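Entry 12.
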Amino acid sequence: MRQAFDTRAPRRGVIVFLVTMAVLLTLLRTSQIMPFYTRGALPEMIVQAKAPTAFVYVLDLGVVVPLSLLAAWWLWRHWLWGFILARFVLV
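Predicted 3D structure (tokens):
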């Protein structure tokens, strides 16, 4: 597996994309959630879904953001699992 990813494999652009995606998703989702904590107003997505919660918040903040940051860190450190995890996150 290590031979499939040599030093010429593109990493920098993938790292920048993964970190940018994680930061933007965090800002987007927390900006929708914070009014509930400050004013008690439910996010519009939850109101429209007529559900107690929105799975999108859990998926983005609980799965996509941590995996993106972990893949970026592992890619930056040249670890093989970074290439593997980045493929899953990007797909």
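Annotation: The chain has one domain: 12-90. Residues 12-90 form one domain.
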